[in-house]
Every structure is written in structure tokens, then in C-alpha cells.
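Take a look at the protein record below and flag anything odd:
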Amino acid sequence: MTGAAFVENRTNTTQSWRFGVFEVDAPNNELRRGGAPIRVREQSFRILVFLLEHAGELVTREDLQRALWSSDTFVDFDHGLNTAVMKLREALGDPADKPLYIETVPKRGYRFIAPVSREKDQTLPPEFTPMSPPDTNGEGSVMTASTTVVPAIPAKGERPWRRWLWPLAAVGLVALAVGFWYLRRPLPPPRLTNPVQLTQDGRRKNVVGTDGNRLYLNIFEPKAVGQVPVSGGLITESPFDLPSQGGQWGISSVSPDGSSLLVFDHFDRFREGARVSIVGSLGHPVRYLTESYAAIFSPDGRFVLYATPHGDVYSMAAEGGEPRLILASHAPEGEIVRTGDLSWSPDGSTIRFTRDQKIWEVSSSGSNPHQLLPGWHPSASQWGGQWTLDGDFFLFVSGSIGSWNRFPNYSRGGQLWAIDERRGRLRPRIAEPIQLTSGPMVWGPSVSARDGHMIFSRGMSLRGELVRYDKGSNHFDPYLRGISAEMVVFSRDGTYVAYVTFPDGILWRANRDGTGLLQLTKPPFYPRDVRWSPDGSEIVFTDNSQNGVDAIYVVPSQGGTPERLIPEESGPHADLTWSPDGKKVVYSTIPWLSIGNYSPAKIEVRIRELATRRTITLPHRPEGFWSTRWSPDGRYIAGLPFKTDNLSIFDLKTQRWKDLLRKGLNSFPSWSKDGRFIYFLRPTDDRGIYRVPISGGDEERIVDLKDFRYAGWYSSGWLGLDPTDAPLRLRDAGTDEIYALTLESK
């Protein structure tokens, strides 16, 4: 055996796997591509099996040495391992710089990153040999080859059929019992097999529909629409003639015959809705329909179902006309009630949608609205529901209660589940939802293929790299060794740094150089908006893991238990910062109608004296005001009006508001260390990091983010500043691709 001496000659597992177009038959030491065997070195094969047994986990070089290499080998282990992995990559066609299956973690080891399905092994263990019972002559003795069996001759007058009556009756009863048992068994559960990666560009994107030949995609960075063949390949522009006016467009639904699209005029449509239009193939005019938060075609393509930002659900003819109210939200005027993920059953009788992180159901006539799964996994959120084309299954995504808000820029990835809705069969359906996926990869809402035997879904692995902008070189460099962390903040004296790891969401405190780590929180907390107290003794953060409502917590910087800072107020609360003297805090309170649904007019900015617990409210702004930041000199409070996304400051001395900007969608305002500028992030048009002087004047672009791929909790990514005012961001280092998966139900 060359390269290294393995402990055994064959793998000792009886497990088999599928990933992409490959099958791994461990009992027979065989790797197949599309059913055809592939030659691969035994060392390489054993490494592949070990990685598959620990798919999604980091497997260190030491793990491989202990598990697969003999302790008395005299060859160079590092050389042998590197050679075996190189040969394995050649067999899989898996480049090390852009891996599809095996990721190299520098100086540590490897990680298998592709979706994997396990196949049950049918091989009987060697110690078990099936045996047939010996034949007997009916008297307890074993019949041998010399035994002669003479058929009995019925007595005179005896009716031969009577002797068979009772045996036949017994057989009939057994058959009836078996038949009854068979018919009472639940139908076989569905499962997803043979995942095939269709895209390889790494950009964040969602699949929104198919015409049978291609998949239509919404691409998030830069925002665009595209298409890819259902068999996979390069993403190209949509063949539909999207309007040239109105900014960025996205696809909401594909008509059943594939001839038309429902499009909306911008991606950030959650505040006031978006203009929804029908677009035909090239040469067909664009027809405006309505203002909507979400919209889909009916199963026959004759109608459009849509929801308003207020939460009302309507239908209208695809050709236009008066809308028909199906379900009213009954929310107070001005409330935003997020009603999305609309789905219409193939028979047209039922409508489902997501509201308050749960899936709801109503008849197409508007009667009997109710939660679809009351009491099922109350700590889990549900979204992205769609029927398969035959109506046999309703597929949806579910994750932890915080994940609906946790990673909105990843379109709320979770795990795929199915509800059994097979009808017209004697055997009963499966009552509880069936989990279809598991593991480190998270999934987006699915789209059914036109043949009904396959689904398409977005699969994501979440990882990031902390980077800092270097003005001299005009590019981002890894910071703190490129850890996957965001919400990075420094103590006032610059001695310590605090950050939140992504995607596990743990708050850490460390020395400025990254040494001396101290863990401050553990799941289910996922801290956001992290801030140091001026004296460095405490750290505050926002979190919504306890009941889905944002609350502000404080934890000692030397370690301790996080506690609510303002327990007497129900919240939601967010965006807390300290006054420079540490005696007061400023924060936003955002009353919600329900989880995720709020009224901008009721947003307030409050200042709280920590010693007396006395609270005052700043003069009201009708559009609301949040992302509050106290200036270093204590005179101003900066923030963002909710609806306008201008950048404004409140002068505590004059008690007046002042707008610094009336342009663009802005986020993450941050004061410069000297208090002369406010830095901010513009994530949409003219993407970049900017700053504006508080004395007035034009904005200045510091960094162009046109080609920057971000990661993290927030939909626009996160922005921070180091003690020298150098911008910090979390760069995307994960994977984000579209997959085809076979849906089996037999």
C-alpha cells in the first residue's frame, strides 16, 4: 500500500451515502458517479467515508491520523494525507479554491460542505446466516430423500372438499386481518433524495418559480432577476422585458403556463408595499395591477392573490378589474401586518399564508381563518409554504423562533418539512409534519418541478470573515484573524473588544488583539446592537429569543447572567446607547400589533436616568425614529426616521430635530470618535459606506461596496468602526446555491 499504511484494508461501516451525482457504497468500497464506478485510491476513499460520517463538521488532520493511519507507520503523514486528498478531489472534480464538496480549513483540516443523504444498508452482518426450516412428515420426524409420501385415499362416501373447509376459512381470516392491517398502516412518508447543485456563483438568491425548462431567480447582490436551466448551469438574464422605470425589480410569481411573471418594483417592499405588474414575454406590454406586499397567480392563472401591508388579502382578475376582499386583518389603521408566503391549493379551494411567524389557512371564499398547525412546535417559526403540483404535500420551512428575524438577508433559512395531504386513499395520511432535511445546511422555500417528482430549493451554509477597510490600499483585509463575527465594538479606552460570532450568535469579550477570550452569552440568545458602558464595566445588547419580542439586556463585562435592563416595560425595545457620562441611556420603543407587525407612528425615543429610573420621551416624529446613537459630546442623538430613511439628529440643547440627509436608504449610523461626522451604510442604490458632517454639507463616500458580499444577522449586513474610525464589515465566506432534490413518497 503506497503513501501510508492504513489500519485496515476495508472500511468497517455498512452505511452508504448520496451527494450531488455521486454515490458512496462503503460496504463494497465503491464510489459511483451516475451509477458508474469511479477508480479512486483506497486511502482517498477511506478519507471520503470519514468525512461523510462527520458531514458539516470540522475534521482535523489529527482526527484523520488517529482514525485512519497506523501508529507504527514510518512514512510522512502530512505528505500522505495531502496526496490522498488531492487524488480524492481529482476523482470528484472538486477544485480546492472553489470547493463544491470538501472545504479545506487552513492549518486545521477539512469539512464536507455539500448536502448528503444517507442510504440504509441492506447487507446482512456476516455473523447472521438465514436458514430454512427442515421439512417434516407431519409426525415430527424429518423427511429424508428416501422418504416416500403416499397421498391419502378418501373413505367411501366422504366428500374431499370438507377436509379443506376449515383450512381455507383460516387462510381467509388471516388474509382479511393482513388486509385490514395493511389498509390501516399510514402511507409511506415522503423523503428528499439525490440533491444536485444547479448553480455555482455563490451569490445570495431565491428560486421563485419555473416554466418547466428554467428556474426564475431573485438575486440579492447586486439586486437583479435571472434564470438558470432546470438541469443547472450559468445564471443568465430573464427573457422577460422588465420595465426600465421604477428602479430594481423582483419576481413574485410565475404563471402556470410560464408565459407571464408577477413582478414588484423594488425588493424592500415591506413598509408601504410595492407596485405589482404582470410582465409577458418580449414584445408584450407591462400591465400595472396594484400595490401589494406579496402576490401570486391562482392555480389556473386567471386570478392574482395579493396581500396589502395592512394585512388584508384580496384577489383580482389577472386581466385587471375590481379586487375582491377575501380576508380582512381588522388591524388599526396605520398598522403594518406582515402577511406573506401566499399559496393557493391546486384545486383552488384553500389559501395559506404566513402571519406572526405561523402558517394560517382560510378558504378561498374567505371563511374559517385559523392557524394550520396550532400547538405544533410552539418555539418554532413557520414560513415559505407551497403545495406540490399534485396537492399531495404542503412543503414549508421551519426554524427556531428567532430565525424568522435572525438572518433576514438569507430569506429566513431553516429546515424543510412536509404536511401529508394525500386524499382519496384507503390508507390514512401521516398526521404530524414530516421533517425532510437536517444538518448544518439551511434551506429556503421550495418550488415544485412541473413533473411533480422534484423540488428546487436554496441551500445555504452560513459563515463569514471579519474584515477592516484599509484606506491606503483601498480594500478590505482580514481583521482579528478573519473570525466569523459581527457587532464588533470597543471599550472607550480601546483595551477590550466585544463581538458576536456568526452564525451561532455568542457574545464574547476579548483583549483588543483577540486574546483572553471570555464568553458572555449562550444560546438561545443572539445579541445585536452591542454597546459598552462608558466605564467598561457592562455591555448591553438587544435580543428577541425569549418570546420573539426585542428586549434590551445588560451583562457584566467580566462575565455573569444577562438581565433585562428595563423589565417594567413590555417593549419591544432596541438601539440603546449610553450618554457619555454613563448616567443615562437612550433607546427606541416600537409597539407591535403582533410579532413583526408594528406601527411607525407609535415608535418613540426615550431617555432613561439609570439612578432614578425616570424616563422622558423626545418630541414625537409621525414617521417614527430609531437606530438612536448618542454623540460623544452628549449634545446630540442621531438616528433614522423610519419611513423616510433620512439621517437626522436631535439637539438636546435646542430641543429641535435636524435632517442631515434626505437621500437613499441608510442604516447603521455611527459617530466618529471626535464627534464631527456620522458614518452610515447605504445598502441599495449607490451601495457604499458614507459619512456626513453634523455641521451640514454633502455626504462623502468612504468605500464603494458594489462588489462586496456581506453576511450576518441584518438584511443589509452590519457596519462598525474600529478606534481609528476604519470601517468593519462581515464578508460572506459561506455557500449559497440552488439545488434540485427528488421527492419520493413510495
Remarks:
- DSSP finds five helices and 59 strands in the chain.
- Residues 1-10, 121-156, 267-271, 401-412 have pLDDT under 50 and may be disordered.
- The radius of gyration is 31 Å.
- Residues 165-184 form the longest helix (20 residues).
